[in-house]
Specification:
By secondary structure, the chain is mainly alpha-helical. It has a single domain, classed as Winged helix-like DNA-binding domain superfamily/Winged helix DNA-binding domain (Arc Repressor Mutant, subunit A, Orthogonal Bundle). About 55% of the residues lie in helices and about 10% in strands. It is built from six helices and two strands, in the order αααβαβαα. The chain has a two-stranded antiparallel ribbon with strand order 1-2. Helix 1 crosses helix 3 and helix 2 packs across helix 3. The longest helix has 13 residues. It is globular.
Length: about 100
Protein backbone atom coordinates (compact mmCIF):
# COMPACT_ATOMS: atom_id res chain seq x y z
CA UNK A 1 0.00 0.00 0.00
CA UNK A 2 1.42 3.37 -1.00
CA UNK A 3 0.90 6.42 1.13
CA UNK A 4 -0.14 9.85 -0.05
CA UNK A 5 2.78 12.05 -1.07
CA UNK A 6 4.05 14.50 1.50
CA UNK A 7 3.45 17.94 0.07
CA UNK A 8 5.12 21.22 0.92
CA UNK A 9 2.90 23.73 2.65
CA UNK A 10 2.50 25.80 -0.54
CA UNK A 11 1.70 22.73 -2.68
CA UNK A 12 -0.81 21.60 -0.05
CA UNK A 13 -2.40 25.06 -0.06
CA UNK A 14 -2.68 25.00 -3.86
CA UNK A 15 -4.14 21.49 -3.86
CA UNK A 16 -6.64 22.55 -1.19
CA UNK A 17 -7.65 25.59 -3.28
CA UNK A 18 -8.18 23.35 -6.29
CA UNK A 19 -10.27 20.92 -4.24
CA UNK A 20 -12.48 23.84 -3.18
CA UNK A 21 -13.22 24.83 -6.78
CA UNK A 22 -10.56 27.43 -7.59
CA UNK A 23 -9.54 26.11 -10.98
CA UNK A 24 -7.03 28.33 -12.77
CA UNK A 25 -3.71 29.92 -11.88
CA UNK A 26 -4.76 33.53 -11.33
CA UNK A 27 -7.73 32.36 -9.26
CA UNK A 28 -5.36 30.31 -7.08
CA UNK A 29 -2.88 33.19 -6.71
CA UNK A 30 -5.65 35.56 -5.61
CA UNK A 31 -7.15 33.22 -3.00
CA UNK A 32 -3.85 31.92 -1.56
CA UNK A 33 -1.74 35.07 -1.83
CA UNK A 34 1.06 33.01 -3.38
CA UNK A 35 3.06 34.53 -6.27
CA UNK A 36 3.01 33.13 -9.81
CA UNK A 37 6.60 31.90 -9.36
CA UNK A 38 5.30 29.56 -6.66
CA UNK A 39 1.88 28.63 -8.06
CA UNK A 40 2.73 27.64 -11.64
CA UNK A 41 5.76 25.46 -10.87
CA UNK A 42 3.76 23.75 -8.08
CA UNK A 43 0.86 23.13 -10.48
CA UNK A 44 3.27 21.52 -12.97
CA UNK A 45 4.69 19.27 -10.21
CA UNK A 46 1.21 18.34 -8.98
CA UNK A 47 0.24 17.46 -12.55
CA UNK A 48 3.45 15.49 -13.09
CA UNK A 49 2.73 13.54 -9.90
CA UNK A 50 -0.80 12.69 -11.06
CA UNK A 51 -2.56 14.75 -8.39
CA UNK A 52 -3.94 17.30 -10.83
CA UNK A 53 -5.06 17.24 -14.48
CA UNK A 54 -5.34 20.27 -16.72
CA UNK A 55 -6.89 21.36 -19.97
CA UNK A 56 -7.02 24.59 -21.95
CA UNK A 57 -10.33 26.32 -22.35
CA UNK A 58 -11.59 26.67 -25.93
CA UNK A 59 -10.00 29.62 -27.71
CA UNK A 60 -13.41 31.00 -28.76
CA UNK A 61 -14.48 31.33 -25.10
CA UNK A 62 -11.34 33.29 -24.26
CA UNK A 63 -11.74 35.46 -27.34
CA UNK A 64 -15.37 36.18 -26.48
CA UNK A 65 -14.21 37.36 -23.03
CA UNK A 66 -11.36 39.37 -24.62
CA UNK A 67 -8.58 37.63 -22.69
CA UNK A 68 -5.99 34.90 -23.19
CA UNK A 69 -7.13 31.28 -22.88
CA UNK A 70 -7.02 29.87 -19.35
CA UNK A 71 -5.62 26.54 -18.34
CA UNK A 72 -8.09 24.84 -16.00
CA UNK A 73 -6.88 22.45 -13.32
CA UNK A 74 -8.85 19.68 -11.66
CA UNK A 75 -7.91 17.45 -8.72
CA UNK A 76 -7.65 13.73 -9.54
CA UNK A 77 -8.79 10.93 -7.24
CA UNK A 78 -5.19 10.61 -5.98
CA UNK A 79 -5.12 14.38 -5.52
CA UNK A 80 -8.23 14.28 -3.34
CA UNK A 81 -6.56 11.66 -1.14
CA UNK A 82 -3.42 13.80 -0.96
CA UNK A 83 -5.48 16.90 -0.13
CA UNK A 84 -7.14 15.07 2.79
CA UNK A 85 -3.73 13.88 4.02
CA UNK A 86 -2.32 17.40 3.70
CA UNK A 87 -5.23 18.83 5.70
CA UNK A 88 -4.45 16.33 8.45
CA UNK A 89 -0.77 17.26 8.30
CA UNK A 90 -1.50 21.02 8.15
CA UNK A 91 -4.77 21.48 10.13
CA UNK A 92 -4.82 25.21 9.44
CA UNK A 93 -5.54 24.49 5.74
CA UNK A 94 -9.11 23.61 6.66
CA UNK A 95 -9.66 27.20 7.84
CA UNK A 96 -7.47 29.18 5.44
CA UNK A 97 -9.49 29.06 2.26
CA UNK A 98 -13.16 29.82 1.74
CA UNK A 99 -15.38 27.62 -0.42
CA UNK A 100 -15.67 29.00 -3.95
CA UNK A 101 -18.97 30.67 -4.69
CA UNK A 102 -20.49 29.91 -8.08
Amino acid sequence: MTSAPRLSHSAALILKALSLGYCFGLDIMEITGLPSGTVYPALRRLERDGLVESKWEPENEATASQRPARRYYEVTHSGKTAARAATERYPLLARLLPEKRS
